[in-house]
Design a protein that fits this description.
With 891 residues, the chain is of the alpha+beta class. The chain is 35% helix and 22% strand. An 8-stranded mixed sheet has the order 6-5-9-3-2-12-15-14, with no helix packed on it. Strand 7 and strand 8 form a beta hairpin. Helix 23 (831-843) runs antiparallel to helix 24 (847-858).
């Protein structure tokens, strides 16, 4: 699953996406092997990255620290143990025959389940069945007539308990048939930050009255929501084959797991499609979609690869999804395990409740992947597409046996995004992904630090956080860096082949890596997987008499995080030449003496930029500049320009004189080979007013006109509008971009915002015609700014319509812009906007949208007494502690 991640933190130099997830509790380690670590024992290893012969070490003895009081905020409260579900019975096969009632939003189903006892004889069967009407439960013997079985359905309408006709042993299978009605809208549904609803089955525009939205039916099974539309043992450690027969109106297309093996037209104008999957998978991976779609066909090694989109997006579907066959080939070769399933389809649905979902052979995406042609240059969805595809190995082929082991699915899928970018864009692209994921995890770690594998938590969907995704991906990168590429991918292959079509836990992964490498890797898995935290390093160095002394201190609180064993490389540049020294940090404090013949130009600890954590390395200003020009790796350029940008414009010391040499670094970064460095440099040059302004203006204009990356172009356009002087020329350039029908929407959005900020937006109405119908986030944001600056009663309708059709970060931005718009409107015309903000603040399921709506209302409180009363009422009914704390700040 690609869980949605939203951030309010804007990284001034390089924006990154930061996950916002619910807090979860401190787990206990299921297993660990604590071995004493000494420098001497490490020196015996020939593995890359250990202490070498030319490095001497002086390791301080470790002294347990005094207990810290109070407990840090990032340590959650204890939570209950969450063991793997016991397997009394095993699912073997599920056959479903279903039809739909749009008016009631019901599913009428017949489920025929084949099972067997797991080990012990069983005479009862417990199934998950959420809020069904049960019509009958029958035994279907291999021979003879079906006969009814006794059953009870508990008061909570979640557990269906069936009494079998006799006790069955593990060598026997039996089949039961259940006729039922699923009523997803009549059960009490929940949700989480990652998966906003757990209804399982969703009817979109069921009465067809919304002319702007198609009628659709779709399902979302993860974590345990498929039992809201069919009875099953809804646990990730079950595996089953399946067949689903869907009876639908003849004009609709269907999609499910496996292959379409039959399609029959019925006399009443309906059609019954039969989808069959003969390879076993977990129940949460079962899916259905019904609706009007265009199907764009592709293939991989003779297998169907299909893309389902709304008909108007058929012409751009291949531009978005067309790299999928190449992705399947890349993964198959990289892992040494071919794609195991019979087909691969991807489908975009309306009002989806998560980022994306890797249902076996049929991934569901939201509508963001349906793109107009002018959006294609702005966004490549390869990270989402590749992430879900990679799950078909890690998650679908081999499934985590419990939600505690979710990183076996999500950490690998997260890391796979780096593998694809590394393949297509090289080291800089991979470095960008690493830094993005590190920032995402560190943001979450400020308020929560837990192990990757957690056997204690409150709610299972707490596992869908930046630990399971971002931290887990970075941990896998460190493991790959520690043992080498060949061993890493050989171990992945062994793990997949050994556990295919089964479920697994973290020990299975560790054992595969140990078998391939021949090494005990408990130390690595214990510190990075089974214990919380990350490294917080202070690095100091000095050179004298032919020796470079490097001191390393691990500053993380060892009451709650381990003292890490860190195989790293120290890179040293001397007289323009680079040398690398492999070392291993193994203690709280460590000193390394390296034979360096002359005073170094630069020293970089962790030359491979792979340690998960923070590194505070004191460098001189000259060394930071040297690092930007010579270090090469994305992360090192990123850190260097961030430092130089702060000094170049006095950001680290507002009273200091801006430094010309640091300013030169920022200007040089405008020609960096990687787009995010260029965009970051352009971003920090906003409101630039130095002696070399003409050169800066020329460089920024060059990026705005011709950079191949639209993010760089848009950032340059924004910066150009802030540079002092020459407003008319800037406005003329922006109008030229606006008139260019090939300009991407990101560029158009930056132009509209720029003209609005310059107050050069008169007579724009004709140029903006048609844009106001788009749901593109860049256009919506720019038009929201423009309309707020030019409010009319008619434009309020645009805000209300966009609010109805938007979600997430776009909806949050709209609440802020609507607040500004209403401030500029006469009080008597504000009421519809205030009502809509009030509704969002009370009822929207996304916490930061509620915050945004409240904040917008708060901006109106001084001029509207009715708003003050509304704010009091909203505060009283809010239950989310994060939101309540924010409200208190605004009071």
């Amino acid at each position: 699953m690609n869980a949605p991640h939203i951030s309010f933190r804007r990284w001034r130099l390089f924006p990154v996406v930061v996950a916002t997830v619910a807090a979860c509790a401190v787990p206990a380690c299921k297993s660990s092997k604590n071995q004493p670590m000494t420098t001497e024992s490490l020196e015996d290893s020939n593995r890359p990255g250990t202490v070498s012969d030319f490095v001497t070490t002086d390791s301080a003895a470790f002294t347990p620290p005094t207990p810290v009081t109070p407990i840090p905020d990032y340590v959650p409260e204890p939570a209950p143990d969450q063991p793997t579900s016991a397997k009394l019975s095993d699912l073997v096969n599920t056959k479903l025959d279903v039809s739909f009632d749009y008016a009631k939003q019901y599913l009428y189903g017949t489920a025929t389940l084949t099972l067997r006892p797991h080990f012990y004889p069983q005479q009862t069967l417990r199934l998950d069945a959420q809020h069904f009407l049960i019509d009958e439960v029958m035994l279907v013997p291999a021979k003879g007539a079906v006969r009814p079985l006794k059953y009870t359905y508990d008061d909570s309408l979640t557990n269906l308990n069936i009494v079998l006709d006799r006790a069955y042993t593990r060598g026997e299978t039996y089949t039961v048939r259940i006729k039922y009605t699923a009523r997803p809208n009549e059960r009490k549904a929940g949700g989480s930050e990652a998966i906003s609803s757990d209804k399982g089955l969703y009817f979109i525009n069921p009465d067809g009255k919304d002319g702007k939205k198609p009628r659709q039916i779709w399902t979302q099974g993860e974590t345990q929501s498929n039992s809201a539309w069919f009875p099953t043992i809804d646990r990730p450690n079950q595996k089953m084959t399946q067949e689903i027969r869907m009876t639908v109106e003849g004009r609709y297309k269907t999609l499910s797991n496996g292959l379409l093996v039959a399609s029959k037209k019925n006399k009443d104008g309906t059609r019954t499609d039969t989808w069959r999957q003969d390879k076993p998978h977990a129940p949460y991976l079962a899916m259905m979609v019904v609706g009007e779609f265009a199907v764009v066909h592709d293939t991989w090694r003779g297998k169907a690869v299909d893309y389902y989109v709304e008909p108007k997006y058929a012409s751009t579907a291949k531009a978005v999804f067309g790299r999928t066959p190449a992705m399947i080939e890349f993964i198959s070769k990289r892992l040494g395990v071919d794609y195991a399933w019979d087909k691969y389809a991807q489908i975009c649905v309306r009002d989806y409740v998560s980022g994306a979902m890797e249902n076996t052979t049929a991934t569901i995406h939201g509508t963001g992947l349906q793109m107009e042609r002018r959006e294609l240059a702005d966004k490549e969805w390869d990270d989402y597409i590749f992430h879900e595809l990679f799950h078909h190995w890690f998650g679908d082929l081999v499934t985590a046996e419990s939600w505690s082991n979710l990183p076996l699915n999500e950490s690998f899928a997260n890391y796979s995004e780096l593998l694809w970018v590394e393949h297509r864009q090289g080291p800089d692209g991979a470095g960008y992904i690493q830094q993005r994921e590190l920032n995402q995890y560190l943001s979450e770690a400020e308020g929560k630090q837990v192990p990757l594998i957690r056997y204690r938590y409150n709610q299972r969907e707490e596992m869908f956080d930046s630990h399971s995704y971002a931290k887990g991906g970075r941990v896998l990168h460190m493991l790959r860096n520690t043992i080498g590429d060949e061993a890493f991918f050989a171990a992945c292959k062994l793990y997949l082949e050994r556990n295919k079509f089964k479920s697994a836990e973290i020990a299975d992964l560790r054992l595969a890596f140990e078998e391939v490498t021949g090494e005990d890797l408990h130390w690595f898995f214990d510190q990075w997987v089974l214990r919380p935290g990350h490294a917080d390093l202070a690095v100091r160095h000095e050179w004298a008499n032919g020796n470079l002394t490097v001191q390393v201190e691990q500053r993380q609180d060892s009451m709650f995080s381990p003292i890490y064993r860190l195989p790293v490389k120290i890179a040293v540049w001397t007289n323009g030449q680079k040398a690398e020294y492999p070392v291993t940090v193994a203690h709280a404090t460590e000193t390394f003496k390296l034979p360096v013949t002359a005073a170094p130009d630069l020293v970089i600890f962790d030359a491979d930029a792979q340690v998960l954590g923070t590194i505070d390395q004191q460098l001189s200003d000259d060394q930071w500049r040297y690092q930007f020009y010579h270090a090469g790796k994305f992360l090192h350029r990123y850190e260097a320009i961030k430092h130089c940008a702060q000094r170049a414009f006095g950001q680290d010391n507002p009273t200091a004189e801006p430094d010309a040499a640091d300013r030169a670094v920022v200007i040089a970064a405008l020609r960096d080979p990687f787009w995010s460095i260029r965009a970051g440099a352009a971003n920090v040059l906003e409101k630039y007013a130095q002696d070399d302004l003409p050169r800066v203006r020329t460089e920024i204009r060059r990026l705005a006109e011709s950079d191949p990356n639209t993010q760089v172009r848009a950032t340059a356009i924004t910066t150009l509008t802030t540079l002092p002087g020459d407003t008319a020329a800037t406005a003329a350039l922006l109008r030229r971009f606006l008139a260019d029908t090939t300009s991407s929407y990101r560029v158009v959005g930056a132009v509209i915002s720029g003209l609005t900020a310059l107050r050069q937006d008169d007579n724009l109405e004709a140029s903006l015609k048609g844009f106001d119908q788009s749901q593109n986030p860049d256009l919506v944001g720019a038009l929201g700014e423009y309309y707020a600056a030019h409010p009319t009663k008619e434009r309020l309708d645009w805000y209300l319509r966009q609010i109805d059709e938007s979600n997430g970060a776009t909806l949050y931005s709209l609440t802020q812009q609507l607040g500004q718009f209403l401030q500029n409107m006469p009080t008597q015309n504000r009421r519809p906007g205030i009502e809509r903000l009030d509704q969002l603040a009370r009822t929207n399921e996304t916490f930061f949208v509620r915050l945004g709506a409240y904040q917008a209302l708060h901006s109106l409180a001084d001029t509207d007494p009715d708003v003050r009363e509304r704010l009091d009422s909203i505060r009283e009914q809010e239950q989310d502690e994060r939101v309540k704390r924010y409200y208190e700040m605004l009071k």
